[in-house]
Amino acid sequence: MNERALQFDIVVVGAGPAGLAAACAAAECGRRTALVDDTPWLGGQIWRGQQSHPSLPQARQWIERFSRSKATLLDSCSVLGPAGSRLLLAEQNAAPRLIQWQRLILATGARELFLPFPGWTLPGNSGPGGLQSLAKHGWPVSGKRIVLAGSGPLLLAVGAGLRKMGASIVSVNEQAPWSRLISFGTALIRWPAKLAQAARLKWTLRGTPFRCGVWPVAADGGEQVRAVTLTDGRRRWTEECDFLACGFGLVPNVELPLALGCQLTNGFVTVDDLQAASVARVYCAGELTGIAGADAALVEGEIAGLAASGRDDAARPLMARRAAWRRFRASLAAAFALREEMARLAAPDTVVCRCEDVSFERMKTFAGWRDAKLQTRCGMGPCQGRVCGAAARVLFGWGMQSVRPPLLPARVDSLAQDPIAGHSS
Amino acid sequence: MRRPDLSIIPIPMPDYLQLRVNGTTVRVTPQTVVAAAVAQAGHARFRRSVNGQMRGPLCGMGTCMECRLTINGQAHCRSCQTLCQEGMEVRTDE
């Protein structure tokens, strides 16, 4: 036991739906529980802004339930990596923290997948989820013309959200073909709440073109995005805009599970019936185990929180609900699978690694991620390959990489706290 | 470390706060992130890449680091994850 460390029975990383549910379940079982999050607010990306401006009853209910629980919140607290036996090294408000756990629940969620195309590095192009998050925290969108492109249910949701904030949505462009969207819509009959939600979003966006089988070719505008060129594979056209919001779905934030040695299957953390990962005493919940949205994350989080508290009996009755959401997850993946053209959007000189400015042409000459990294420094900048590593998987089929702590750029005095690094230096 | 606060219960907040972006005063509402204040001040460019290209926020959630800038003299702060505070000094493009 490390006497400088904060001591908890159960530490949950990530305060989105999965992490909130896990922390509530663990704290309500009487375990000394900490919920750690990188941001100053609760709710993760999907419920961002719900703490200060609640509009979703479900989000409000879980945030209130967490606030009533005896769990400790460590917010604005970035986990830098494992630091020895059942110990995490973190940085909170520029100060180092060591956090000791007996059971660890990872609920680090997902980020948007960005794929390079000419002009994608221009200011004014951001992820749809990214733009929505920024807009909820004051980014000016009112009166701005916004084109949405890429893939996934987020496009419609973000378009509707931005329109309610006064933006003028020029068009919404989904790469998946209509045929797959229609099958998905039919499958949604099994999830009436989701179907109703999709219908509401579409109604909010009435009058805005919603296109399927369309994707971006280039963003133009000198020093910031002024227009985007789109294609349906046959013809090309250009639409003027102030912002382009382009993302190709979600990829899980597996850096911390990888650093802990958790096994992955197809890029997601492998878990058993009780959400336990391949590493003893470590559990994973939510998008880390598959992209399925907030409802799936909540039930997985509850199961993980109960199982980590030794209450397998209470966790088992929740498994039927989880099974239903896993079917939804499979429908989502099938509907929004990326068409092969998405791996060929970049021009030879298009930057793929934005941190080190490594072009598509340079990267594609290498056999794998490791080679490319050693020769070009791709993935070695401040984002540590979070953007280009995920893109390289789609562009070149390069497999999931191992990671090295610190998982985020950290202050030197934080790293000096690492009992292992500290001793070896 | 602190106890979870019940901040969904409305608490009186100041209507706005002021900070400076590249020397110009910007007035924002509470819960505005620094990246948004920079955009409100009319700046699209946040930083230059290693080859001198202009960059701005991409992910909006603290992973891509494209929105990094200098806050109160500290370089490489993620402006999308930092809430504005009264009197902050923000510099882009450094």
Q: Report how far the terminal alpha carbons of chain B are from each other.
A: 33 Å
Structural domain tally of chain A: 3
Number of helices of chain B: 1
**Separate helix tally of chain A:** 15
Q: Largest interface here, residues on each chain?
A: A-B, 54 and 44 residues
What is the tally of beta strands of chain A? 23
N→C terminal distance of chain A: 21 Å
The proportion of residues in beta strands of chain A is: 15-25%
CATH architecture of the largest domain in chain A: 3-Layer(bba) Sandwich
Strand pairing plus helix content of chain A: what structural class?
alpha/beta
Tell me the Rg of chain B in angstroms. Answer: 14 Å
Query: What do we call the CATH homologous superfamily of the largest domain in chain A?
Result: FAD/NAD(P)-binding domain
Based on Cα principal axes, name the global outline of chain B: globular
The order of strands across the largest sheet of chain A is 4-3-2-8-21
The CATH architecture of chain B is Roll
The domain tally of chain B reads 1
Which ranges of chain A are low-confidence, i.e. pLDDT below 50, for 5 or more consecutive residues?
A: 421-425
Mean of residue pLDDT values of chain A: 93
Written overview of the protein:
The complex is a heterodimer of chains A (425) and B (94). With 425 residues, chain A is α/β, with parallel strands linked by helices. Helices cover 33% and strands 22% of the residues of chain A. Chain A folds into three domains: 6-110 and 251-333, 3-Layer(bba) Sandwich (FAD/NAD(P)-binding domain); 114-248, FAD/NAD(P)-binding domain (3-Layer(bba) Sandwich), CATH 3.50.50.60; 339-420, no CATH class. Chain A contains 15 helices and 23 strands. In chain A, strand 6 (87-92) and strand 7 (95-100) form a beta hairpin. In chain A, helix 1 runs parallel beside helix 2. Mean pLDDT of chain A is 93; it is low at 421-425. Chain B has a single domain, classed as Roll (Ubiquitin-like (UB roll)), CATH 3.10.20.440. In chain B, the strands form two sheets. Chain B has a five-stranded mixed sheet with strand order 2-1-7-5-6, with helices on one face. Chain B has a two-stranded antiparallel ribbon with strand order 3-4. The radius of gyration of chain B is 14 Å and the shape is globular. At the A-B interface, helix 2, strand 4, strand 10 and helix 3 of A face helix 1 and strand 4 of B.
